[in-house]
Design a protein that fits this description.
Number of domains: 1
Distance between the termini: 31 Å
Mean pLDDT: 96
CATH class: Alpha Beta
CATH architecture: Alpha-Beta Complex
Largest sheet: 8 strands, mixed
Structural class: alpha/beta
Oligomer: single chain
Strand content: 25-35%
Bound molecules: cytidine-5'-monophosphate
Helix content: 25-40%
CATH topology: Spore Coat Polysaccharide Biosynthesis Protein SpsA, Chain A
Order of helices and strands: EEEHEHEHEHEEEEEHHEH
Low-confidence stretches: none
Number of strands: 12
Radius of gyration: 17 Å
Number of helices: 7
């Protein structure tokens, strides 16, 4: 099974308030991107990696990969305006004969190999895709303006993370037909085309870095 990883790292990270894109914000002594890049490269499950880089940062991404000895990085492409567009551009670099695409957000640096194993195992069971998910602690309500219109059943909800794994042909088809700009994850595009996606156990350490407090929280877990 040839597994290509797509690492979405093209976000601007405005909410971090740094003078550089989020992927190059400092996490400990390194750019944030280094952690997920190194972990993907070290995974026996992953054969090749394509990185969606912030515009103008393709070269620094390649240099960082070389510095870290990440030999699986095959390309750094310029990201788009939204996550969906960045993933689409990276996907265009994945060869036709790839069997599986694993899409991960660089904003979730603490990637463990066992999560990768869980999502890939689901594909071996015959699913079109698999996503890690965690139970939701808060009660979630749907609103229109200030008005609550619905309270969702908490036991039916999962907070979904990355890495998300897909049969490559299914993901390509979903990206070519779907509303890529608006998609906040890959699974939603596959679901919209009728794809069967399994939710597997997520990992609480896969915290998504949005602001400075998240960076500090993750740095403490390194
Ligand atoms: O912005 P947000 O935190 O939701 O982004 C999730 C992931 O998608 C991050 O790893 C970010 O770098 C990536 N992204 C991207 N291209 C964009 C926006 C976000 O690759 N235009």
């Amino acid at each position: 099974m040839s597994v290509w990883a797509v690492l979405a790292a093209a976000g601007s990270g405005e909410r971090l308030g740094a003078d550089r894109p989020k992927a190059f914000a400092r996490l400990g002594d390194e750019p944030l991107l280094a952690e997920s890049l190194r972990r993907l490269d070290a995974s026996d499950w992953v054969e090749f990696i394509v990185v969606a880089a912030p515009p103008g940062w393709e070269e620094p991404v390649i240099l960082l990969a070389e510095e870290l000895g990440c030999s699986k990085v095959s390309a750094a492409v310029v990201g788009g305006e939204t996550r969906g567009e960045s993933v689409a551009r990276a996907l265009a670099e994945v060869p036709e004969d790839a069997a599986v695409v694993l899409v991960h957000d660089a904003a979730r640096p603490l990637l463990e190999d066992d999560v990768i194993e869980r999502v890939l195992t689901a594909l071996n069971e015959g699913w079109d895709g698999a996503v890690p998910g965690l139970p939701v602690a808060d009660t979630v309500k749907r609103v229109e303006g200030d008005r609550v219109v619905e309270t969702l059943r908490r036991d039916e909800l999962r907070a979904v993370q990355t890495p998300q794994a897909f049969v490559a042909s299914v993901l390509r088809e979903a990206y070519s037909a779907g509303d890529v700009r608006a998609a906040t994850d890959c699974s939603s595009l596959v679901e919209a085309r009728g794809g069967r996606v399994k939710v597997v156990e997520g990992d609480p350490r896969l915290i998504k870095i949005t602001d400075g407090a998240d960076l500090e929280r993750v740095a403490a877990l390194l």
